[in-house]
Design brief:
It contains 18 helices and twelve strands. The protein has two domains: 208 residues, Metalloenzyme, LuxS/M16 peptidase-like (Cytochrome Bc1 Complex, Chain A, domain 1, 2-Layer Sandwich), CATH 3.30.830.10; 201 residues, 2-Layer Sandwich (Cytochrome Bc1 Complex, Chain A, domain 1). The protein starts with 8 loop residues before the first helix and ends with a strand. α4 crosses α10. The protein is an alpha+beta fold. The strands form two sheets. A seven-stranded mixed β-sheet has the order 1-2-6-3-5-4-12, with helices on both faces. A five-stranded mixed β-sheet has the order 7-11-8-10-9, with helices on both faces.
Length: 460
């Protein structure tokens, strides 16, 4: 999980006060109703009656991981095109219909998945059900709709990556850190691939990956699971399943030496990031890495901020990034942006010193407890959001089994100081490291400094 939500010490106190209620709460396994339709579509329904609203998410098991060189960016481009209508629904009408019914909608593409979602009053769920079942099988667009959307995506890439030196650096790091796995290319795709894509490419991609057997529906909200299951079955049951999708067989070989990448671009300040190949949820070390990220970068009281920003006054921003719920093993990031006048090489050494400290000395009990409490508080308190509950179900189902949500807190609680030291020594090594540095071109100091953060999925 990413550390976008920073947890302060006071939240841990709140968590301890709420502990009896938390222990008594039902697990996801007890609350979620799972159904698999004959055409292969899985339904995950979670009743939550605290407000008369509901969230519906349709997850497709396709992202940039499923693409090929020369045809990157098709997952994200198709996400845009999914709003171009069907024989029943005109272009851009999807969002207008949702808005007329008091709801909001959006979509996002990631390395492993493409997700469409809408939030609205629970008594209007039938509206989004009909729309989603229709476009799962009846998407229609011609060149007059394809070409403008293609240009929209190209402009999106310019704004988010080509004109953002920090985002461009993370893109470069991925392309260097991976030599054989499709995680090496960006979710939005390479510019030339987007430019060369055709309507036929998009339609072929749609027919290949957008089928009931390669998708699942998540609904959370104020509804009867039994009644909603019948509605979904009636709407999606007749959708014919497609052929089995092509398997992704690529596997990244073990890295056998440090790799370095330098990006020379117009930028106000330098930037440095360290990336290490690490396991994910499928490995027992996944939760340990989650805690390790919190120890180093879990807010302003964590080690990186305290040492590099407060004490040494080397950096204006620091952080970590780690995706626990990825289909294939990903990267663990440490990153920092120096204060004006501070050498980026000195900042890199300071980051490496923090790793060395983890490897040489066990984390103290108080610091470890604080980090684990912060992660648990973030997890528990976020359950108040129906959308977040749906996201959890979707993310864990994408990597194999939504039941694993219930193991998150116990696994975090079980992490020891010895685990952290062992994992730091095992993965955060020089031979497993890719270092990326942003080197500003002369005369570009007036350029605004972009936010410092690792890459994330593309939002429509």
């Amino acid at each position: 999980m990413r550390y976008a939500l920073r947890i302060v010490t006071a939240v841990a106190v709140l968590l301890s006060l709420a502990a009896p209620a938390t222990r008594a709460a039902q697990t996801y396994a007890e609350r979620v109703r799972e159904t698999v339709l004959p055409n292969g579509l899985k339904l995950l329904l979670l009743e939550d009656h605290k407000a008369p609203v509901a969230v519906m998410q349709v997850w497709y098991r396709v992202g940039s991981r499923n693409e090929q060189l020369g045809r990157t960016g098709l997952s994200h481009l198709l996400e845009h095109l999914m709003f171009k209508g069907t024989k029943k629904v005109g272009p851009e009408e999807y969002s207008r219909i949702i808005q007329r019914n008091g709801g909001n909608d959006n979509a996002f593409t990631a390395d492993d998945s493409t997700t469409y979602f809408a939030s609205l009053a629970s008594d209007r769920l039938s509206v989004v059900i009909d729309l989603e079942s229709d476009r799962m099988q009846n998407l229609a667009f011609d060149d007059s709709q394809f070409t403008p959307e293609q240009h929209v995506v190209m402009e999106e890439r310019r704004l988010r990556t080509d004109n953002n030196p920090v985002a461009a650096l993370f893109e470069l790091i991925s392309s260097v850190a991976y030599s054989a796995h499709p995680y090496q290319w960006p979710t939005i795709g390479w510019m030339d691939d987007i430019r060369q894509a055709t309507r036929a490419d998009a339609l072929d991609y749609y027919r290949t990956y957008y089928s009931p057997g390669n998708a699942f529906v998540v609904c959370v909200g104020d509804f009867s699971a039994e009644t909603l299951r019948d509605q979904l079955t009636k709407a999606f049951g007749p959708v014919p399943n497609g052929q089995p999708v092509p398997a992704v067989r690529a596997s990244e070989p073990k890295q056998q030496g440090e790799r370095r990448a330098v990006l020379r671009r117009e930028a106000q300040l330098p930037f440095v990031a360290l990336a290490y190949h690490v396991p994910d949820l499928h490995d027992p070390d996944g939760p340990v890495l989650e805690v390790l990220g919190a120890i180093l970068g879990g807010g302003k009281s964590a080690r990186l901020y305290q040492t590099l920003v407060y004490d040494k006054r080397l950096a204006r921003d620091v952080g970590t990034g780690y995706e626990l719920t990825s289909v294939d093993p990903g990267l663990f990031y440490l990153y920092a942006q120096p204060l004006p006048g501070k050498p980026v090489a000195q900042l890199e050494k300071a980051l490496l010193a923090q790793i060395d400290k983890l490897q040489q000395a066990p984390v103290g009990t108080r610091e470890l407890t604080k980090a684990k409490n912060g992660l648990e508080a973030q997890f528990v308190l976020a359950q108040d959001s129906m959308f977040y509950q749906g996201m959890l179900l979707g993310q864990y189902e994408m990597v194999g089994d939504w039941h694993a949500i219930d193991t998150y807190v116990p696994n975090i609680r079980a992490v020891t100081a010895q685990d952290l030291q062992r994992v730091a020594r095992l993965y955060l090594t020089a031979d497993n490291r890719t270092v990326g540095t942003l080197d500003p071109l002369p005369g570009s100091a007036d350029r605004p400094a972009p936010p410092a953060m690792p890459p994330a999925g593309m939002v429509h």
